[in-house]
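Hi all, a correction to my earlier message: I attached the wrong file for Alpha/beta hydrolase. Here's the right sequence:
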Amino acid sequence: MDVTYDETRRELSTDNGVLRYHEAGDPDAPPLILLHGSGPGVTGWRNYRGNLGVFAETHHCFVLEFPGFGVSDPWEGMPVLTAGKSVLAFMDALGIATAPMIGNSMGGVVGVNLAIRKPDRVEKLVTIGGVGPNLFSPSPSEGLRLLQEFADDPDRDKLVRWLRAMVYDKDLVTEQLISERWEAAMNPEALATGRAMYGSASFEMQQQFLATSDVPPYWAMMHKISCPTLLTWGRDDRVSPPDMALAPMRLIPNAELHVFPRCGHWVMIEAKEAFESTVTAFLAR
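and the right structure:
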């Protein structure tokens, strides 16, 4: 199915502002919600525009733009938490009782948290990297350190270094991609969200909270996830190295792991056809 930005773009008014999203596929088909990741210039459309046509052949697809990333109106609060709240508000407004979800990186963490706390809303879950703790690799990873450097003091060269850490094949980082990401990354809302998530000061606050809080980290509660879960990973991911997959693979009762060779963090882009085939088969079971 051929989809375009303008044909699929939609808006939804909520009590917290406008949520924007992309919709494609037969309205009578089962729903599928796609949740984007984080980082400079990210949007749901940029994460999934290459996959939307394939998934829309079998599902009624919704690519939600999270608050605070320069597309939907910003919400007050920590971006990962407001993202989860926005998913529930979105589903309620559109009358979606439950749906399978695909989450890239941060979007996967959002999906995991929803599957833990609202299991009746998540029918199946597909994650793309990003889920779980660093078991053997350094934390923060190389990719996250580069992201932190950009968040602290954004410039174009730092953006390019981060983008090249996202992929195995450096040829994917084209001048068009750099320009597109740079323009979107300079959005004031997106800059503020990036600092809140990845700036040095925020990172230190998060580490102090984890060290002193009685609240367990989300990954320690993954045994509560009851839905079938497909963990997808790039073998050469420098943002969330593959050792992170070991904890969710063991803790989530009904989880399976698929690792794609010669692939970095953007599995849905760099291993596009193999990813789509794997996910389509998983959703069809």
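Sorry for the mix-up. The longest strand covers residues 17-24.
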